[in-house]
Design a protein that fits this description.
This protein is α+β, with helices and mostly antiparallel strands. It contains 27 helices and 24 strands.
């Protein structure tokens, strides 16, 4: 499909089938079909083929990906082929000093394959439009290309312009050359250049479309391909597709958990941040539930499968993303909406011009030249470049500033955004745990206790352990130890200079030293719990030494970013999978008063929907798989590049520069780019409206009409390049 009218045609064809309700999304090139009658996928494919298009069943995702990729390759091939041949055609036609004897015949030979093969995608769609009694931008391109080409062929073969002594003559008035006894002008350069301009725009568009289709692939790629199953006391590796409910499988440290299940043996910590947004790893043991695609950090687990395939939480999130994506309205492109009316008007004016000149002057050559000039002056070179070129420059400038824009619909939505939902972990915060405080027993030194803890934790890969080591490195270098023993999901022990050190979960440490908690210990635990921090206890030789509190850290620019968003009229809400205590503490640090905590992925979507139903136009900023559905469901999705591939692919904007000021810049750049695009489109249409009457009354011959058309494209290029001067609010452009 090349425009929204294509999507509408397919949708109409599908809805003509009894018992079928179909919605076709042009942006994703997909159809969502609800039906009550007995149909096979082949029935829908056949109906789509009858409308002039092709379709692939969704279960063959590799075929879908291949089709999207091939479409981009096809457009690119047509563009470079046409570009290579059009360059000498334009140079020879427009620069008289280059014109040698018989040059026009070479131009004819070079332009012919461009017209018939290079521009074939436009001719094909124009023919489909003609069959269905409609018109769009492709109709204008095809018509303008053929009009310029066949006029030139007539002039070359029958009009006397094929003489070896022929030189291109530029004249303002239609019929002036005939009056001077000269051969009619050739317009091969118009026929060759027009497809090149528009193919370039289509190529840019296909690249954006190809990127947007990869969200679901990125989500499903989180699944592992094979699982180690426990059968008859033996570990057997099987394809994940063969795993069934009640199978017992093994998950080793560092591996992704194969599927949803219940732990029946072993203890460990599991990193669920990818799916839940929870920044603190979860301790699991016998009876604990685990989620497929999460990461087992430090212990061997035996798990009984409770959900496989489409029954897993990962599959549920995938369905949420798919539902949100299919629910997003198709891109309503201004160019195609106007072209549907504009093309018939142009054709009518061209026919009226031809008849009027014949009646008034009786000069067939002048009449045809005026009619061709009307068609050529209306050719949409500038229209074809207006959006993709501004988008290309805008995205290039955005990339310099750490902002990646997805497509034109992103720009349109950014203009209307009045509410922004920020995910806490990895967005407002860094998503990295750091030591917040060290509370020690009376008479103990905090730096010494921290260093003692780090000497043990230096042998662990647990995120909390790494944070402790990082904090201690700033105090005292970590030295080697002996006798390290890990208790997965609980803690670790080691002997340091004849001192038996235990570090880990406070309850586990107290059990190991067989002591009750002291008052200072209870008070520190209460403070940490209230603040929503993770707590690690440390003991030496059966004596409690201290507590280390760790928490996610707020990005330095988050508070200023929230203030800037409020300043430009965008209300900010913080959304988090963490507890209300953690969320409230972070919100107070950055100046956010509207908080929604303890939310699951489906609930995040519900928050977005509720705001939209209240009349808000909502942007969502997130970084995890758990944010993917909300990012797609929001009017504008913004992902941090340090987040998951799923979140990035599901978003409309990706922030490579990982601070929230980049989100403010993204909104500003999107709005500025949209203004440039609208300026380009206004100029393109205004140019047509002003120039068509001049061509109709004979004040522009087809050659100058082509030059004027080229000038409008130059204006669009120059206007788009203004985006290169866009400046970041933070002064950064890395």
């Amino acid at each position: 499909m090349t425009c929204t009218s294509c999507a509408q045609r397919v949708q109409t064809k599908l809805n003509q089938l009894p018992g079928v309700a179909a919605s076709v999304n042009y942006a994703t090139e997909s159809a969502h079909i609800d039906f009550t009658a007995q149909y096979q996928v082949a029935d829908f494919v056949k109906a789509i083929q009858e409308a002039g298009y092709d379709a692939i069943a969704p279960e063959f995702q590799s075929h879908v990906d291949e089709a999207i990729e091939n479409d981009g390759i096809r457009i690119r091939r047509h563009f470079w082929f046409s570009f290579a041949l059009a360059i000498p055609v334009v140079l020879l036609s427009m620069i008289p000093i280059l014109q040698f004897s018989g040059w026009q015949w070479l131009v004819f030979v070079l332009s012919t394959p461009v017209v018939f093969w290079g521009a074939w995608p436009f001719h094909r769609v124009a023919w489909l439009n003609l069959r269905h009694g409609t018109a769009n931008m492709d109709t204008l391109i095809s018509l303008g290309t053929f009009a310029a080409y066949f006029w030139s062929v007539w002039a070359l073969l029958l009009g006397g312009s094929g003489a070896l002594t022929y030189r291109a003559t530029h004249s303002l008035f239609v019929g002036a050359m005939a009056d001077m006894g000269q051969a009619p002008a050739l317009y091969f350069e118009v026929a060759a250049a027009l497809p090149v301009f528009v193919l370039a725009g289509r190529w840019f568009e296909s690249r954006a479309k190809r990127n947007s289709s990869s969200a679901m692939r990125a989500l499903l790629s989180l699944r592992i391909d094979r699982a180690t199953v426990w059968r008859d006391g033996i570990e057997v590796e099987v394809p994940l597709a063969e795993l069934i409910v009640s199978d017992i499988f093994v998950t080793k440290p560092g591996e992704r958990i194969a599927t949803d299940g219940e732990v029946i043996d072993g203890e460990s910590s599991v990193d669920e941040a990818l799916l839940t947004g929870e920044s603190v790893p979860v301790s699991v043991g016998p009876g604990s539930s685990v989620v497929g695609a999460t990461v087992n950090l430090d212990g061997r687990l035996l798990v009984r499968a409770t959900g496989v395939g489409e029954q897993t939480k990962l599959a549920q999130i995938a369905r949420l993303v798919a539902a949100a994506q299919s629910g997003k309205a198709p891109i309503q492109r201004l160019v195609d909406r106007v072209a549907a009316v504009f093309v018939p008007i142009v054709l009518g004016l061209a026919l009226l011009t031809l008849i009027s000149w014949l009646l008034v002057t009786g000069d067939a050559q002048a009449a045809f030249a005026a009619a061709v000039a009307v068609v050529i002056i209306a050719c949409p070179c500038a229209l074809g470049l207006a959006t993709p070129l501004a988008l290309l420059v805008g995205t290039g400038r955005g990339a310099q500033m750490g902002i990646v824009l997805r497509g034109p619909e992103t720009l349109e939505q950014s203009r209307r955004i009045d509410a922004m939902v920020l995910d806490k972990t990895g967005t407002i915060t860094t998503g990295v745990m750091a030591v917040q405080s060290v509370t020690v027993a009376p008479g103990r030194d905090g730096d010494a206790v921290l260093n003692l803890a780090a000497r043990v934790e230096s042998y662990s890969e647990h995120p909390l352990a790494q944070a402790i080591v990082l904090a201690a490195d700033a105090v005292v270098p970590v030295t080697e130890i002996s006798g390290f023993i890990s208790s997965p999901g609980r803690g670790a022990t080691a002997t340091i200079e004849e001192v038996l050190v235990r570090i880990g979960q406070p309850r586990w440490v107290l059990e190991q030293i067989n002591q009750a908690a002291a008052p200072w210990f209870d008070e520190a635990m209460r403070e940490a719990t209230t603040a929503g921090s993770a707590v690690v206890a440390i003991a030496g030789n059966d004596e409690l030494l201290g507590l280390i509190s760790l928490a996610d850290t707020v990005r330095p620019t988050s508070r200023r970013a929230v203030g800037e968003l409020n300043r430009i009229g965008i209300a900010v809400t913080m959304l988090s999978g963490d507890s209300i205590a953690v969320a409230a503490k972070v919100a107070s640090q950055v100046g956010i008063t509207d908080i929604v905590a303890d939310v699951q992925p489906a609930e995040k979507v519900a928050v977005i929907v509720a705001a939209q139903q209240a009349g808000k136009v909502v942007a969502m900023v997130g970084d995890g798989v758990n944010d993917a559905a909300a990012l797609v469901r929001a009017d504008l999705g913004i992902a941090m590049s340090t987040g998951s591939d799923v979140a990035i692919e599901a978003s409309d904007i990706t922030l490579v520069r990982n601070d929230l000021l980049a989100a403010v810049d993204a909104i500003r750049l999107s709005r500025r780019t949209l203004r440039i695009i609208k300026g380009n489109l206004f100029w393109a249409f205004a140019y047509n409206i002003a120039m068509i009457p001049l061509a109709a009354v004979g004040l522009l011959n087809p050659l100058l009409a082509g030059a004027a058309m080229a000038f409008s494209s130059v204006f669009v290029v120059a206007n788009s390049l203004r985006l290169r001067g866009f400046q970041s609010i933070s002064g950064k452009a890395s």
